[in-house]
């Protein structure tokens, strides 16, 4: 409820009875001015009026005065009272564990329709709200939805947490699973168990979640239900007789899932009397409200106006707004033990919201919830503005993209070749690919993005360790001989599933990428192989998945997990143009790859350089050792054209003078490398 003062506008006499969304705009046709002096919100739950502090701002337009209004704190009292009557013993928090394209989002839509949370026939993939999620068919940000479900005359409060399934977002996935008591293990009847299903199963199992197997897409002609059931029993040791067979697309048998959720998944512990502890599951940025947190209340009760503190950042906040997602934000007077909802604490930047952090009452601090860890970037790219593009403009836009993803690390860097730019870090290859696609879509040719690199570790002789994220910081060969004890590269354990007929080709691909076989399982009744390899991360980011898809005609699936660091013979290869290093193109790689890649580099870069009036030499070098060379001949003038029947010595003299001139010109001449050369060299499509 908004109260107005200093206004002489009759049309605004009823303004006090209006509610407005957060800082929503209001217009008034007027000749006089008015000011918003204060705002008072009635809490209909009986707590009483609460004052909301804000600074109003007036903006004059053609239609009159435009002012800001406050947060929409209208509480649906009927919904709030219905939820309050439900005991914690009838709460169920669950998620859906599935591989990409196994129907997780479609099944979520059917469950929301079944409980009346959204009307039937609503837009598909309701919980996938980002454009990139709809385009790629993946979940990037964790979403939750509260459902009210009635069984045997009793209401149940169900929280469906839609989690990212990809390993790049493993920190968010583990935090999301930690807020659940169980999960639906979804398997496509036509494809069977695949790599991501296996990885997510073991993560959910390690966290003690109760798993309910669900076979989806049983309506397809090529569905192989017996195979899927046998895989569930042999691989996951789950009772296949209790598996639920559904078709999420047609809604067949979906109504049997929620009774199974109520019966099999345990309720959260009733710790309502304990001191407040909230697990921060995810966060996103809102233009008007700032950072909105997705939280799971583990202990106690969180109310509006409470003073809270972050266990890890030690920053203090006041709860401005909170509620549930049903399916959109619905304000509530409080959130109690077992509930998953949103909270607005007045955070200004996404960097303040630490996934896995614990929110507690200020002055009544208790032990933080376990499992918090800062996300560590595993893939880095350099980004530089193209010629003629203003740096400050691009800098502001890139920082806007980072607002909704605190796991992206960004810092300024300078290149001798490309000038001022940024070094951007990502959680993994998919994370980097999604972000790069957004950059390319929004800025296109105005950005030059370098090849992805991974963090290497240098162990010095004095016992210290250094993480190298930029090839420019890699120690030179002379320093390595005297001060470096060991060089380490990051490794991942790749889990691949594909038809048996492609086994030989896939093994050859892994071996060519310096992989080490860990395990191989032949899945029964499916002609499928589950192959595990230890692969260097640097090879994984070099389009490994694209090559795997190409070899298996698109049938392969890939998942991976961090496997620490391993000693390796690493070198830094640079590209030299007439002896000058092009630092933006330098890369760290294994010594066995240097010679082959060096030849590829110089041949590729030669295509994009123009001939000069002097000879241009392109070299690939490791320290002072040249491993490959290409030469662009100088453009020459025909100095003999004016001679007709002169003596041979005259001709030789002119050619000798021209040669000396070219030699002097090369000493003082400088090769200007155009921006198109960098973009062409770094473009995908040909091997680097």
Main sheet: strand order: 17-16-22-13-14-21-18-19
Radius of gyration: 31 Å
Structural class, from helix and strand content? Answer: alpha+beta
- Range of helix content: 10-25%
What value does the average pLDDT take? 78
| Strand count | 37
* Proportion of residues in β-strands: 25-35%
Low-confidence stretches: 1-71
Which geometry do the CA atoms define?
elongated
How would you characterize this protein structure?
The protein is built from 16 helices and 37 strands. The strands form eight sheets. Strands 17-16-22-13-14-21-18-19 form an eight-stranded antiparallel beta sheet. A six-stranded mixed beta sheet has the order 8-9-7-10-11-12, sandwiched between helices. Strands 27, 28, 29, 30, 31 and 32 form a six-stranded antiparallel beta sheet that branches. Mean pLDDT is 78; it is low at 1-71.
Quick rundown:
It is built from 16 helices and 37 strands. By secondary structure, it is of the alpha+beta class.
């Amino acid at each position: 409820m908004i109260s107005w003062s200093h206004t002489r506008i009759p049309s605004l006499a009823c303004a006090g009875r209006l509610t407005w969304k957060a800082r929503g705009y209001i217009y008034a046709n007027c000749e006089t001015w008015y000011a918003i002096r204060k705002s008072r919100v009635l809490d209909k739950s009986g707590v009483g009026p609460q004052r909301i502090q804000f600074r109003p701002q007036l903006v004059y337009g053609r239609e009159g005065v435009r002012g800001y209004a406050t947060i929409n704190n209208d509480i649906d009292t009927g919904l709030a009272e219905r939820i309050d009557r439900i005991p914690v013993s009838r709460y169920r928090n669950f998620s859906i564990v599935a591989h990409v394209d196994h129907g997780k989002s479609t099944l979520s839509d059917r469950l929301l329709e079944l409980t009346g949370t959204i009307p039937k026939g609503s837009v598909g993939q309701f919980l996938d709200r980002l454009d990139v999620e709809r385009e790629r068919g993946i979940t990037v940000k964790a979403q939750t939805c509260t459902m009210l479900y009635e069984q045997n005359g009793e209401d149940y409060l169900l929280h469906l947490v839609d989690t990212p399934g990809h390993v790049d977002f493993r920190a968010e996935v583990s935090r999301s699973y930690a807020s659940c008591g169980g999960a639906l293990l979804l398997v496509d009847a036509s494809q069977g168990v695949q790599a991501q299903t296996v990885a997510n199963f073991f993560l959910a199992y390690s966290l003690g979640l109760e798993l309910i197997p669900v076979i989806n897409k049983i309506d397809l002609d090529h569905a192989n239900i017996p195979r899927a059931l046998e895989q569930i029993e042999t691989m996951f040791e789950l009772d296949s007789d209790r598996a639920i067979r559904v078709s999420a697309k047609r809604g067949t048998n979906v109504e049997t899932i929620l009774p199974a959720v109520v019966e099999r998944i345990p309720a959260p512990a009733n710790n309502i009397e304990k001191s407040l502890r909230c697990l921060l599951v995810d966060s996103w940025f809102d233009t008007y409200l700032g950072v909105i947190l997705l939280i799971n209340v583990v202990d106690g009760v969180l109310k509006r106006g409470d003073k809270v503190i972050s266990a890890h950042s030690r920053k203090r906040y006041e709860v401005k707004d909170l509620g549930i997602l049903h399916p959109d934000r619905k304000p509530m007077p409080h959130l109690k033990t077992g509930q998953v909802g949103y909270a607005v604490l007045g955070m200004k930047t996404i960097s303040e919201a630490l996934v896995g952090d614990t929110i507690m009452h200020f002055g009544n601090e208790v032990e933080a919830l376990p499992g918090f860890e800062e996300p560590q970037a595993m893939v880095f790219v350099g980004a530089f503005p193209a010629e003629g593009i203003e740096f400050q403009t691009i800098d502001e836009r890139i920082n806007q993209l980072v607002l909704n993803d605190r796991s992206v690390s960004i810092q300024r860097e300078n290149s001798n070749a490309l000038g001022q730019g940024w070094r951007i870090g990502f959680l993994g290859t998919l994370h980097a690919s999604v972000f790069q696609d957004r950059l390319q879509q929004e800025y296109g040719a105005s950005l030059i993005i370098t090849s992805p690199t991974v963090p290497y570790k240098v162990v010095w002789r004095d016992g210290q360790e250094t993480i190298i994220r930029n090839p420019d910081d890699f120690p030179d060969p002379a320093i390595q001989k005297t001060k470096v004890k060991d060089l380490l590269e990051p490794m991942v354990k790749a889990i691949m599933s594909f038809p048996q007929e492609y086994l030989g080709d896939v093994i050859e691909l892994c071996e060519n990428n310096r992989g080490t076989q860990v395990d191989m399982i032949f899945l029964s009744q499916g002609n499928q192989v589950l192959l595990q390899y230890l692969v260097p991360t640097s090879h994984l980011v070099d389009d490994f998945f694209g090559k795997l898809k190409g070899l298996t005609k698109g049938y392969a699936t890939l998942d991976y997990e961090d496997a620490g660091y391993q000693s390796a013979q690493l070198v830094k290869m640079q590209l030299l143009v007439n002896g000058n290093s092009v630092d933006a193109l330098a890369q760290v790689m294994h010594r066995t790859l240097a010679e082959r890649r060096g030849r590829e580099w110089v041949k590729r870069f030669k295509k994009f350089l123009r001939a000069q009036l002097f000879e241009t030499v392109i070299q690939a070098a490791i320290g002072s050792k040249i491993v490959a060379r290409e030469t662009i001949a100088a453009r020459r003038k025909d100095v003999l054209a004016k001679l007709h029947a002169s003596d041979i010595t005259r001709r030789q003299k002119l050619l000798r003078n021209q040669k000396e001139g070219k030699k002097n010109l090369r000493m003082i001449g400088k090769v200007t490398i155009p921006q198109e050369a960098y973009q062409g060299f770094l473009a995908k499509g040909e091997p680097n």
